[in-house]
Amino acid sequence: MTRNRTSMGGDRQFAGTDADSRKRALNRPHYLFAFLVSVGLVCGGCQTPQPPLPNPPGPKTAVRLSPGDTIKVAYADESVPDQAQKIRRDGKVSLPFIGEVTASGKRLMDFQDELVSRYEGQLGNSEVLVTLENGAANVIVSGFAHKPGKIDFDRPKTVYQAIMEAGGATDYGSLSNVHLTRIINGAQRTETINLRPTVHGKPTIPTYVQDGDVIYISRNWF
Asked: What string of H, E and C letters represents the secondary structure of the chain?
Protein backbone atom coordinates (compact mmCIF):
# COMPACT_ATOMS: atom_id res chain seq x y z
CA MET A 1 0.00 0.00 0.00
CA THR A 2 2.82 2.41 0.82
CA ARG A 3 4.46 1.74 -2.48
CA ASN A 4 1.21 2.42 -4.30
CA ARG A 5 0.71 5.77 -2.51
CA THR A 6 4.27 6.75 -3.30
CA SER A 7 3.78 5.77 -6.88
CA MET A 8 0.52 7.68 -7.07
CA GLY A 9 2.15 10.71 -5.44
CA GLY A 10 4.93 10.54 -7.97
CA ASP A 11 2.41 10.32 -10.75
CA ARG A 12 0.61 13.44 -9.45
CA GLN A 13 3.95 15.28 -9.22
CA PHE A 14 4.85 14.47 -12.80
CA ALA A 15 1.36 15.33 -13.93
CA GLY A 16 1.66 18.78 -12.32
CA THR A 17 5.03 19.28 -14.00
CA ASP A 18 3.52 18.44 -17.37
CA ALA A 19 0.76 20.98 -16.77
CA ASP A 20 3.30 23.70 -16.01
CA SER A 21 5.22 22.82 -19.14
CA ARG A 22 2.07 23.04 -21.23
CA LYS A 23 1.24 26.43 -19.66
CA ARG A 24 4.71 27.79 -20.46
CA ALA A 25 4.41 26.50 -24.01
CA LEU A 26 1.07 28.27 -24.41
CA ASN A 27 2.60 31.52 -23.15
CA ARG A 28 5.49 31.46 -25.62
CA PRO A 29 3.46 32.94 -28.52
CA HIS A 30 2.56 35.88 -26.27
CA TYR A 31 6.23 36.53 -25.47
CA LEU A 32 7.09 36.22 -29.17
CA PHE A 33 4.30 38.63 -30.11
CA ALA A 34 5.46 41.17 -27.51
CA PHE A 35 9.04 40.91 -28.81
CA LEU A 36 7.95 41.48 -32.40
CA VAL A 37 5.85 44.50 -31.38
CA SER A 38 8.81 46.06 -29.53
CA VAL A 39 11.05 45.52 -32.55
CA GLY A 40 8.43 47.09 -34.77
CA LEU A 41 8.22 50.17 -32.56
CA VAL A 42 11.97 50.63 -32.61
CA CYS A 43 12.20 50.16 -36.35
CA GLY A 44 9.28 52.51 -36.82
CA GLY A 45 11.71 55.36 -36.28
CA CYS A 46 14.02 54.01 -38.99
CA GLN A 47 12.62 55.33 -42.24
CA THR A 48 13.40 53.80 -45.60
CA PRO A 49 16.12 55.84 -47.35
CA GLN A 50 14.73 58.01 -50.13
CA PRO A 51 16.36 58.13 -53.60
CA PRO A 52 18.51 61.14 -54.58
CA LEU A 53 16.71 64.23 -55.80
CA PRO A 54 16.84 64.73 -59.57
CA ASN A 55 19.32 67.24 -60.96
CA PRO A 56 20.86 68.33 -57.63
CA PRO A 57 22.42 71.81 -57.81
CA GLY A 58 26.17 72.13 -57.60
CA PRO A 59 28.80 74.84 -57.59
CA LYS A 60 28.44 75.22 -61.37
CA THR A 61 24.64 75.21 -61.44
CA ALA A 62 23.23 78.25 -63.23
CA VAL A 63 21.78 80.81 -60.82
CA ARG A 64 18.06 81.50 -61.10
CA LEU A 65 16.71 84.84 -59.95
CA SER A 66 14.15 85.01 -57.17
CA PRO A 67 12.19 87.72 -55.28
CA GLY A 68 14.47 89.65 -52.94
CA ASP A 69 17.52 89.39 -55.23
CA THR A 70 19.21 92.66 -56.19
CA ILE A 71 20.29 92.81 -59.82
CA LYS A 72 22.26 95.39 -61.77
CA VAL A 73 21.52 96.16 -65.42
CA ALA A 74 24.41 97.93 -67.18
CA TYR A 75 23.60 99.56 -70.54
CA ALA A 76 26.00 99.86 -73.46
CA ASP A 77 23.99 102.90 -74.56
CA GLU A 78 25.43 105.72 -72.45
CA SER A 79 22.19 107.69 -72.65
CA VAL A 80 20.61 105.25 -70.16
CA PRO A 81 21.93 105.13 -66.60
CA ASP A 82 22.68 101.73 -65.10
CA GLN A 83 19.91 100.27 -62.98
CA ALA A 84 20.28 98.46 -59.62
CA GLN A 85 16.94 97.04 -58.51
CA LYS A 86 15.55 94.56 -56.04
CA ILE A 87 13.21 92.00 -57.53
CA ARG A 88 9.77 92.56 -56.04
CA ARG A 89 7.60 89.94 -54.38
CA ASP A 90 5.67 89.54 -57.63
CA GLY A 91 8.97 88.63 -59.33
CA LYS A 92 9.18 91.77 -61.48
CA VAL A 93 11.45 94.81 -61.95
CA SER A 94 10.69 98.09 -63.69
CA LEU A 95 13.21 99.23 -66.32
CA PRO A 96 13.49 102.33 -68.55
CA PHE A 97 11.57 102.28 -71.86
CA ILE A 98 10.20 98.75 -71.48
CA GLY A 99 8.46 99.01 -68.09
CA GLU A 100 7.81 95.96 -65.90
CA VAL A 101 9.62 92.73 -66.71
CA THR A 102 9.40 89.38 -64.92
CA ALA A 103 12.85 88.36 -63.67
CA SER A 104 12.07 85.72 -61.04
CA GLY A 105 12.69 82.10 -62.04
CA LYS A 106 14.97 83.01 -64.94
CA ARG A 107 18.66 82.39 -65.31
CA LEU A 108 20.83 85.50 -65.48
CA MET A 109 21.88 84.83 -69.08
CA ASP A 110 18.32 84.14 -70.21
CA PHE A 111 17.04 87.32 -68.56
CA GLN A 112 19.88 89.30 -70.13
CA ASP A 113 19.05 87.94 -73.61
CA GLU A 114 15.40 88.83 -73.07
CA LEU A 115 16.31 92.44 -72.23
CA VAL A 116 18.55 92.74 -75.28
CA SER A 117 15.65 91.56 -77.44
CA ARG A 118 13.20 93.97 -75.82
CA TYR A 119 15.54 96.94 -76.17
CA GLU A 120 16.03 96.42 -79.91
CA GLY A 121 14.53 99.47 -81.62
CA GLN A 122 14.28 101.27 -78.28
CA LEU A 123 17.99 102.14 -77.95
CA GLY A 124 20.83 102.88 -80.35
CA ASN A 125 22.76 100.00 -78.76
CA SER A 126 20.54 97.34 -77.17
CA GLU A 127 23.36 95.43 -75.49
CA VAL A 128 23.00 95.11 -71.68
CA LEU A 129 24.83 93.22 -68.94
CA VAL A 130 22.86 91.72 -66.05
CA THR A 131 24.68 90.79 -62.83
CA LEU A 132 23.49 89.52 -59.46
CA GLU A 133 24.49 92.04 -56.79
CA ASN A 134 22.94 90.36 -53.79
CA GLY A 135 21.20 87.01 -53.50
CA ALA A 136 18.52 86.21 -50.91
CA ALA A 137 18.72 82.41 -50.86
CA ASN A 138 18.13 80.53 -47.61
CA VAL A 139 17.67 77.02 -46.27
CA ILE A 140 15.95 75.84 -43.08
CA VAL A 141 17.71 73.38 -40.74
CA SER A 142 15.35 71.62 -38.30
CA GLY A 143 15.13 68.52 -36.14
CA PHE A 144 17.91 67.56 -33.74
CA ALA A 145 20.27 70.47 -34.45
CA HIS A 146 21.90 72.66 -31.80
CA LYS A 147 20.69 75.87 -33.44
CA PRO A 148 17.80 75.04 -35.78
CA GLY A 149 16.58 77.86 -37.96
CA LYS A 150 17.11 79.68 -41.26
CA ILE A 151 20.56 79.77 -42.86
CA ASP A 152 21.19 82.47 -45.50
CA PHE A 153 23.69 82.00 -48.30
CA ASP A 154 24.75 83.85 -51.44
CA ARG A 155 27.10 81.22 -52.87
CA PRO A 156 27.01 77.42 -53.28
CA LYS A 157 26.59 75.66 -49.93
CA THR A 158 26.45 71.96 -49.10
CA VAL A 159 24.06 70.18 -46.74
CA TYR A 160 26.97 69.47 -44.39
CA GLN A 161 28.01 73.15 -44.34
CA ALA A 162 24.45 74.26 -43.59
CA ILE A 163 24.19 71.80 -40.68
CA MET A 164 27.52 72.94 -39.28
CA GLU A 165 26.29 76.56 -39.41
CA ALA A 166 23.31 75.37 -37.36
CA GLY A 167 25.70 74.11 -34.66
CA GLY A 168 25.79 70.50 -35.85
CA ALA A 169 23.65 67.64 -34.58
CA THR A 170 22.80 67.19 -30.91
CA ASP A 171 23.62 64.02 -28.97
CA TYR A 172 20.20 62.72 -30.01
CA GLY A 173 20.62 63.62 -33.68
CA SER A 174 21.65 61.16 -36.39
CA LEU A 175 23.90 62.48 -39.14
CA SER A 176 23.46 59.16 -40.92
CA ASN A 177 19.74 59.89 -41.40
CA VAL A 178 19.42 63.46 -42.68
CA HIS A 179 16.41 64.36 -44.83
CA LEU A 180 16.70 67.01 -47.55
CA THR A 181 13.30 68.21 -48.80
CA ARG A 182 12.90 70.30 -51.95
CA ILE A 183 9.94 71.48 -54.03
CA ILE A 184 10.27 70.20 -57.59
CA ASN A 185 7.57 70.96 -60.16
CA GLY A 186 5.12 71.85 -57.41
CA ALA A 187 5.65 68.66 -55.38
CA GLN A 188 7.77 68.10 -52.28
CA ARG A 189 10.54 65.54 -52.78
CA THR A 190 12.79 64.16 -50.05
CA GLU A 191 16.24 62.60 -50.19
CA THR A 192 17.93 60.73 -47.32
CA ILE A 193 21.61 61.58 -46.84
CA ASN A 194 24.25 59.81 -44.75
CA LEU A 195 26.83 62.34 -43.55
CA ARG A 196 28.75 59.94 -41.29
CA PRO A 197 31.52 59.33 -43.85
CA THR A 198 31.93 63.10 -44.27
CA VAL A 199 32.19 63.61 -40.50
CA HIS A 200 34.89 60.95 -40.31
CA GLY A 201 36.91 62.64 -43.06
CA LYS A 202 36.24 60.17 -45.86
CA PRO A 203 36.07 61.48 -49.46
CA THR A 204 32.42 61.96 -50.46
CA ILE A 205 30.44 63.64 -53.23
CA PRO A 206 28.83 66.73 -51.64
CA THR A 207 25.12 67.45 -51.91
CA TYR A 208 24.40 71.13 -52.51
CA VAL A 209 21.35 72.96 -51.21
CA GLN A 210 19.24 75.45 -53.11
CA ASP A 211 16.93 78.24 -52.07
CA GLY A 212 13.92 77.00 -50.10
CA ASP A 213 15.34 73.61 -49.11
CA VAL A 214 14.51 72.11 -45.70
CA ILE A 215 17.07 69.94 -43.89
CA TYR A 216 15.78 67.70 -41.10
CA ILE A 217 18.15 65.85 -38.75
CA SER A 218 16.40 62.69 -37.56
CA ARG A 219 16.62 61.19 -34.08
CA ASN A 220 19.38 58.72 -33.35
CA TRP A 221 17.57 55.55 -32.20
CA PHE A 222 20.68 53.48 -31.43
From this structure: CHHHHHHHHHHHHHHHHHHHHHHHHHHHHHHHHHHHHHHHHHHHCCCCCCCCCCCCCCCCCCCECCCCCEEEEEECCCCCCCEEEECCCCCEEEECCCEEEECCCCEHHHHHHHHHHHHECCECCCCEEEEEEECCEEEEEEECECCCEEEEECCCCEHHHHHHHCCCECCCEEEEEEEEEEEECCEEEEEEECCHHHHCCCCCCCCECCCCCEEEEEECCC
